[in-house]
C-alpha cells in the first residue's frame, strides 16, 4: 500500500490545523460535552475523506460519460425515426 505524507513545518502546523478544522466544521464541544476526537485527528480524517470523495466523483464522472456514449451510440444505431 502506498503512503501519502504531507509535511508541515512545526512553525505553521497550528495555523494549518486551525484553518482546516474551521473549514471542515470541527466542534470542540458537541451536545455540551467535549469532543472525544482532537482537532488534529478530525483534520486528518477530513483530508482522507476529501481525497476519497475526489476519487469517487472522478470515477463516477468517467463511468457516467462512458455510459452516455455507449447509450447514445446504441440509440443512434437502433432507433430510426422518420
Task: Determine the number of helices (DSSP H or I, runs of at least 4 residues).
Answer: 2
Strand order of the largest sheet: 1-2
CA-based shape: elongated
Helix content: 55-70%
- What are the segments in which pLDDT stays under 50 over at least 5 consecutive residues? none
Strand count: 2
Question: Could you tell me the strand content as a percent range?
Answer: under 5%
Spell out the helices and strands N to C.
Answer: HEEH
Most strands sheet: 2 strands, antiparallel
The value of Rg in angstroms is: 22 Å
Q: How many domains make up the coordinates?
A: 1
Give the averaged pLDDT, no decimals.
94
**Backbone structural class:** mainly alpha
- Terminus-to-terminus distance: 56 Å
